[in-house]
From TrEMBL:
Residues 14-88, 124-184 form the RsiG-like domain. This is RsiG-like domain-containing protein. It comes from the Bacteria. It comes from Mangrovactinospora gilvigrisea. Residues 59-79 are annotated as: Disordered. It holds the Pfam family RsiG.
Length: 188
């Protein structure tokens, strides 16, 4: 899967001093681009997390002495993976408080992330029964590495969005920008 894209600095600065020098419309554009990228990254992260959860569940099942998942060509009633998916993919209570942002779940808009979707979808899950424990553990470790890359990028993008939002709020709070200006821009 390789790297997950350029540095968050390609969106714009997150340094307050640099942001103070930018026009308001540029700040809004930086914030919008960062939020869009965050949504793309969140979508891909969740896809990876689902695959990691499935591999973890299969490895746990095997470790607990249950037989491996049957091969793909086995009768459907022999494979309880589908039956256990809602349990496997259920969101556990978060260990760390996440972002308070509301994100709309959708397929990524940015081309570099859209191109990763097929890679993530095909990641190591075509036939669990055809792989031994070591292969599944290696696949899980690779996916965890990809997820960590996406998480790092997402955190950097969030810093840019937060910094732009803070500067916009500061300008309104200190009277450097006004709601009237915003309304005039929307009307024109």
């Amino acid at each position: 899967m390789g790297g997950v894209g350029p540095d968050a600095a390609d969106l714009g600065p997150d340094d307050p001093a640099e942001l103070r020098r930018l026009p308001l419309d540029r700040l809004r554009a930086i914030r919008a681009a960062a939020r869009e990228e965050e949504a793309d990254l969140s979508y891909l992260r969740r896809m990876l997390q689902g695959r990691i959860d499935i591999l973890r569940a299969e490895l746990t099942r095997r470790r607990d002495g249950e037989p491996p998942a049957p091969p793909r060509d086995a009768a459907p009633e022999e494979d309880d993976l589908v039956g256990r998916l809602s349990e496997i993919l259920r969101d556990a209570p978060p260990r760390v408080r996440g972002s308070a942002r509301h994100l709309t779940v959708r397929a990524p808009r940015a081309r570099r992330y859209r191109e990763l979707v097929p890679v993530v979808m095909a990641s190591e899950l075509t036939d669990l029964g055809a792989h031994d424990d070591a292969e599944l553990a290696d696949a899980r470790a690779r996916l965890v590495g990809y997820e960590q890359q996406l998480s790092g990028r997402r955190h950097a993008v969030q810093r840019v969005a937060d910094a732009a939002s803070s500067e916009i709020a500061r300008r309104y709070r200190e009277g450097e920008a006004s709601v009237d200006d915003l309304l005039e821009g929307a009307a024109g």
